[in-house]
From TrEMBL:
<dbReference type="InterPro" id="IPR016032">
    <property type="entry name" value="Sig_transdc_resp-reg_C-effctor"/>
</dbReference>
<keyword id="KW-0804">Transcription</keyword>
<keyword id="KW-0238">DNA-binding</keyword>
<keyword id="KW-0597">Phosphoprotein</keyword>
<feature type="modified residue" description="4-aspartylphosphate">
    <location>
        <position position="49"/>
    </location>
</feature>
<dbReference type="InterPro" id="IPR000792">
    <property type="entry name" value="Tscrpt_reg_LuxR_C"/>
</dbReference>
<feature type="domain" description="HTH luxR-type">
    <location>
        <begin position="140"/>
        <end position="210"/>
    </location>
</feature>
<dbReference type="Pfam" id="PF00196">
    <property type="entry name" value="GerE"/>
</dbReference>
<dbReference type="InterPro" id="IPR058245">
    <property type="entry name" value="NreC/VraR/RcsB-like_REC"/>
</dbReference>
<dbReference type="Pfam" id="PF00072">
    <property type="entry name" value="Response_reg"/>
</dbReference>
<keyword id="KW-0805">Transcription regulation</keyword>
<feature type="domain" description="Response regulatory">
    <location>
        <begin position="1"/>
        <end position="119"/>
    </location>
</feature>
<dbReference type="InterPro" id="IPR001789">
    <property type="entry name" value="Sig_transdc_resp-reg_receiver"/>
</dbReference>
<dbReference type="InterPro" id="IPR011006">
    <property type="entry name" value="CheY-like_superfamily"/>
</dbReference>
<dbReference type="InterPro" id="IPR039420">
    <property type="entry name" value="WalR-like"/>
</dbReference>
<protein>
    <submittedName>
        <fullName>Response regulator transcription factor</fullName>
    </submittedName>
</protein>
Length: 210
């Protein structure tokens, strides 16, 4: 099963695997559909992107972890442009068998990719060395250090008490761009929705603590 929001990449991976005799039972574009497809098809492997609709932060990886909670041992191969630290560690720590994490730009050989697909589906592992390196480096830093310069700028303005609209006006960008940055900040700081604590306040506290 493939979970990827880019239609070109989704179709491309599906055809590539078909050429190798590997059937795709479902190809979806968001985390909710991933969970539904896993329940319906119980695939031998899920190839999953990290960032998918609606917020393009970490929906795919979180959905994959949730699927493994429901179906322990479900093989998952993450194929993404990003190393999402918190959930990557949770995925890898949740069981060493049947997990993989590859970076799209570092997949240069079709045979190696197909080998990784088969290895993870068979219960093995396939983790890009760059993923391991980034996780090791980031584990020594504050989560705020993982933010991009623009995300740190947005968080700094949040610390001043500005709303998203005010931040957009200050940076001369759209409200949607600010919302995307804020979503990325919450994801990188590991701030999930909470009934007891406001994520903006918690993000600002993390910023001040850094």
């Amino acid at each position: 099963m493939i979970a990827e929001d880019s239609v070109l990449l989704r179709e491309g991976v599906q055809r590539l695997l078909a050429d190798e005799g590997i059937e795709t039972v479902a190809a979806v574009e968001n985390g909710d559909d991933l969970l539904d497809a896993v329940t319906e098809h119980r695939p031998d492997l899920c190839v999953v992107d990290v960032r998918m609709p609606p917020t393009f932060t970490d929906e795919g990886l979180r959905a994959a972890i949730e699927a493994r909670r429901h179906y322990p041992g479900l093989p998952v191969l993450v194929l993404s442009q990003y190393v999402e630290e918190r959930y990557a560690v949770e995925l890898l720590a949740g069981g060493a068998s049947g997990v993989g994490y590859l970076l799209k730009e570092r997949v240069a050989d079709v045979k190696e990719f197909v080998d990784a697909v088969r290895r993870v589906a068979d219960g093995g592992t396939s983790i890009d060395h760059e993923v391991i390196t980034q996780l090791m480096v980031r584990s020594k830093k504050s989560p705020v250090d993982s933010l991009t310069p623009r995300e740190r700028e947005v968080l700094g303005l949040m610390a001043q008490g500005l709303s998203n609209t005010a931040i957009a006006a200050t940076l001369v960008v759209s409200d949607g761009a600010v919302e995307k940055h804020v979503g990325n900040i919450f994801a990188k700081l590991g701030l999930e929705p909470s009934n007891s604590e406001h994520r903006r306040v918690r993000a600002v506290l993390a910023y001040l603590d850094s």
